[in-house]
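pasting for the record
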Amino acid sequence: MSSMIEEIIQSIIARCRASTIKETFLRWGRFNSSQLNNQIFSGPKKQIYTKILKLVQESNLNEEIIGDLELVYMQLHSRKKQWKVYKLSGNNLHLNSDPRTLRAKVLRNLQLDWRDGQVFGNMGLFAGGVWLRMHMSSIKGSRRTSYNHNSSVFVVTFPGSPYFILSKAGVKHVQLVTKAITTATNAEGLVDIQLSGHHLASLADIVLKGNGQIQSTVYREQEEEENPFVDKGSRKRKAPEEDTGDLNDINDEDSEEKEFRKSKLVKLFGTESQPVLEKLDYKKYVQ
């Protein structure tokens, strides 16, 4: 078993909350629920790591398959990363590639430009999006350097969309991935549109709505169905409720103004959940 496999598993267990480790490994799909029983996940994280590593070793899983685990982890824990939105530029874009073809093209282009070691590429579908994980490992002399999760760049895009959302990583890694995507899609460039944040779902909904593709809440609705760790109540604005019971006996001098504001909110935004960004970063250029 390679050191990279051990280090990826160790890193993921360390970054997970104790209550989310089991579900993360189940979503990976390499082991069934009987293999990943409660006994596996009892005890401190160090013991869990040892037991998981034994399962991986017995199943003879390779680095490519372990890369799928890191991709699943990021799909379920996307708020652990900061994300930045890019848009393809050009007049003859290839936007409807099969996800596997897109992965193969990006991986091939990266392998040509990454001179420091080996590139691993993984692809998965989640919440209606195409997810890529591009990990660039480094080799010094005859030895591979220790695994660093910041050497993995995660990419999220949608069929027919010119937008690509990339995770924050090393400058060199991101530059090479954006170049690989540009070549794979026959674009002239991949432009940073100065939109970033930790709330990937809101970034996705904003760009999809702006591109006129789908309703603005589709990504988050699908994410809530597929991700057991999403707080389904925190992002929804409740529809105005009628006062009942004894509350009708209380005179509110501002009731008419409040009702006016409520009706205006519903008219403008409806009663559905709205995109929420904990932080929105943008830059303004002054000439």
